[in-house]
Amino acid sequence: MHIPNLNRAALIVKPKKLFKDWLYYLEEDENLLELAITDAKVYLIPDFEEEKECIKWLKKNFDLVFIDFLNGWYTDSSVWPVKRDYNLFKEWFEIHTHLMVFDLAEDDMEWF
């Protein structure tokens, strides 16, 4: 059996304590906070040969991920951190990259 390898790398982003602190400041809902701190997102990024290439891509595109995460919890951008840079991103989120992504699903991918 052949499992197809997608021509993508994966970026797994999980909130750290500073994200939880920001969310708690806005919400003070322990159930929501538990979900936020344990819920990671997986982003498919361009296919790279080495992890350092993934990090280079992320340094240029981190704000796309940062905004997506913030918008997923609060669509009111006035409560988002104004000065978002790569260092703040790393303080707020745990980052893992994976160079090999396999598709085990039998159906076609859907975009929505």
Any overview of this molecule?
There is one protein chain. By secondary structure, the protein is an alpha+beta fold. The chain has helices at 17-27, 30-38, 51-73, 86-92, and strands at 5-6, 8-15, 41-46, 93-98, 101-102. Helix content is 45%, strand content 21%. Helix 1 runs antiparallel to helix 2 (30-38). It is globular, with a radius of gyration of 16 Å. The mean pLDDT is 88.
Our Rg estimate from Cα atoms comes to 16 Å
Structural class: alpha+beta
Residue stretches low in confidence (pLDDT < 50, at least 5 long) are none
The fraction of residues in strands falls at 15-25%
Label this structure with key terms.
three-stranded antiparallel β-sheet; alpha+beta; 112 residues
Explain briefly what this protein structure is:
The chain has about 110 residues and is of the alpha+beta class. It has four helices and five strands; from the N terminus they run E-E-H-H-E-H-H-E-E.
